[in-house]
Specification:
The protein is of the alpha/beta class and 188 residues long. Helix content is 38%, strand content 23%. Helix 3 crosses helix 5 and helix 4 crosses helix 5. The termini are far apart.
Length: 188
C-alpha cells in the first residue's frame, strides 16, 4: 500500500511512533478505529531527518479532515480520535522514545499535521498539553484547513499554528515561524 492510498481514506497516521505501543495496544487501537471506519497507520521513517519538526508526527488524512470540517464525525468517534492523539503524546512525554543526535539525546517533538490541497499545516504540541488544549489545537487545524483549501490567496508549502500566551492561535508561514524563533536570519 502506498502513502497515496493511505491519504485517500479517513486515516490517522503516526510516524516514528511504532515503538510507543505494545503489540496488544496497537491491535486494540487499530480495531477501535476500524469499527469507526477510520484507519490507523503506524509508520517509521528511517534515515536522517533534517527538519525543525522532526520527531513523532500525527497526521490526519484529507478525508478525515473533511469529515471534521463537515461535522460528520460523531462525538464518540471524535473523542476516540482525540484520545489516541493524547495517548501518543503522553507516551512520548513519559520518555518511551528518544531523539538522539550527535549533540544530545532529547524527547522528540510531537506535531499534529494536516495535508491540504494548498500545503501542510503543522502544530508543534507543547511539552505538556491538557485534553482541552488538544481539542483547541485540533479545532484550529481544521479551521485553518477549511479556510485555505477554497481560498485562491493561499499558496504555501507549510503553515505553522502556534499557541499564544492568551491561548489564542497564531498562524505563521514557515519563514515567519523560523524568524520568530531565531532559527534563521534574513529571508529565505
Amino acid at each position: 500500500m502506498s502513502f497515496d492510498d493511505i491519504e485517500n481514506q479517513p486515516a490517522l497516521i503516526i510516524t516514528n511512533g511504532t515503538f510507543l505501543f505494545s503489540e496488544e495496544e496497537r491491535k486494540h487501537l487499530i480495531e477501535g478505529l476500524n469499527k469507526q471506519k477510520i484507519k490507523l497507520f503506524l509508520l517509521e521513517q528511517r534515515g536522517i531527518q533534517n527538519s525543525i519538526f522532526s520527531g513523532i508526527e500525527i497526521i490526519l488524512s484529507n478525508p478525515l479532515v473533511n469529515l471534521l470540517i463537515g461535522g460528520i464525525l460523531m462525538p464518540t468517534i471524535y473523542d476516540n480520535l482525540k484520545n489516541i492523539i493524547q495517548i501518543t503524546f503522553n507516551k512520548v512525554q513519559e520518555g518511551k522514545v528518544w531523539r538522539i543526535t550527535s549533540k544530545e539525546s532529547t524527547i522528540p517533538n510531537v506535531t499534529l499535521k494536516i495535508q491540504t490541497k494548498k500545503g501542510n499545516i503543522i502544530a508543534s504540541l507543547d511539552k505538556e498539553i491538557s485534553d482541552e488544549e488538544l481539542d483547541l489545537y485540533i479545532k484550529a487545524l481544521v479551521q485553518v484547513a477549511n479556510n485555505v483549501d477554497d481560498n485562491d490567496d493561499y499558496n504555501f508549502i507549510y503553515r505553522v499554528i502556534e499557541k499564544n500566551s492568551d491561548d489564542s492561535f497564531l498562524i505563521l508561514t514557515l519563514n515567519e515561524y523560523l524568524k520568530k524563533h531565531n532559527k534563521i536570519n534574513g529571508s529565505l
